[in-house]
Design goal:
The chain has 321 residues and is of the alpha/beta class. Helix content is 36%, strand content 16%. The mean pLDDT is 92.
Length: 321
């Protein structure tokens, strides 16, 4: 059996679908299944068992001998949430329990970290583990992910294989339930569909023109391919960046969305909300050489390719991955 936590969410549900494509059908999905808004993400997928996240460790104590791999991708991902206790509970302490169980039962583990750990990027975007304790995230979410990375690296007891993945700006099908935390592509599509135009955040940094803020946008189909690779690879434990390796502007993202929808561009700007303005990242770009160095060879979707696939094959027809 393969365990996927947070399984009804965006990236994990896509991973369940990708596992099914390779005939991995004994999937145990772990989540808070009382949240009905995510129910479509697992519809039609081959799943062996549904386990509530509150009961997961009791379940694992009883079934660990059958578990081949754990993808711990469940987390609170709201970067505008500032209650540290929420992140300590769901992102830090729960992850420590997963890690310790994988050590005790010798189960290989892939877990979700985040590019939010890099903060303003003053130390760059290299996944060099020596610099991780020096990073200064800009919000409690980033802190929780970095705190766990630091804790994991400090442990003398480790799973025989483990990898932490620093997800950059992931976009793609199955993110519809994320509300304001869904990708700008998703919001762009819906704004264009509703009113034929799109509003981006204005730049409050003199080094960047409006719409020229840059992110490393990575398509979810690339994310799940890396997860599959690591499940089979099971060597070279450590923490890895997972982006496209190429920063692109929000303007390029919006223009590609208009193009995929066959609509003439109409873009306006609004002030970045004060609540996030001081902690806003103007540039992120993953150095992907570390993952490449252990043998991952697949090319990543370009922004043009990813947006085109997402819009035409999922958003317009209303399909899930």
């Amino acid at each position: 059996m393969i365990v996927v936590t947070g399984a009804a969410g965006f990236i994990p549900s896509c991973l369940v679908g990708r596992l099914n494509q390779d005939n991995f059908n004994d999937i145990v999905v772990v989540d808070n299944f009382s949240i009905a808004k995510k129910e479509n993400n697992l519809k039609g997928k081959k799943i062996k068992e549904f386990v509530d996240r509150e009961n997961f460790f009791d379940w694992l104590d009883a079934h660990y001998e059958e578990v081949e791999f754990i993808f711990h991708l469940g987390a609170r991902t709201d970067t505008t949430e500032f209650n540290k206790d929420v992140f300590d509970l769901l992102n830090l302490n729960y992850s420590k329990q997963v890690w310790n169980a994988c050590c005790e039962y010798q189960i290989p583990l892939v877990y979700a970290s985040s590019a939010a750990t890099y903060g303003s990027g003053t130390l760059g975007y290299d996944d060099n583990e020596a610099t991780i304790p020096l990073l200064k995230p800009l919000n409690p979410y980033g802190d929780s992910k970095n705190d766990f990375d630091i804790w994991a690296l400090e442990q003398t007891a480790k799973p025989f294989f483990w990898a932490g993945l620093k997800f950059f700006n992931v976009y793609g099908p199955n993110e519809y339930h994320k509300g304001k935390m869904a990708s700008v592509i998703y919001h762009t599509y819906n704004q264009i569909k509703e009113k034929g135009s799109m509003t981006l955040f204005r730049s409050h940094n003199p080094d960047y023109a409006d719409g020229e803020q840059m992110r490393d946008f990575v398509y979810v189909k690339d994310v799940v391919e890396v997860c599959m690779f690591l499940m089979h690879h099971r060597k070279n434990s450590g923490i890895y960046n997972l982006g496209s390796g190429k920063a692109r502007t929000f303007m390029a993202l919006a223009l590609n969305t208009f193009d995929a929808m066959g609509v003439a561009p109409d873009i306006d700007f609004m002030d970045t909300p004060l609540s996030i303005r001081d902690n806003y990242q103007y540039f992120t770009e993953a150095n992907m050489s570390k993952l490449r160095s252990i043998g991952y060879q697949r090319p990543f979707y370009t922004l043009e390719e990813g947006v085109n696939d997402y819009v035409k094959n999922y958003l317009i027809p209303g399909k899930y991955y």
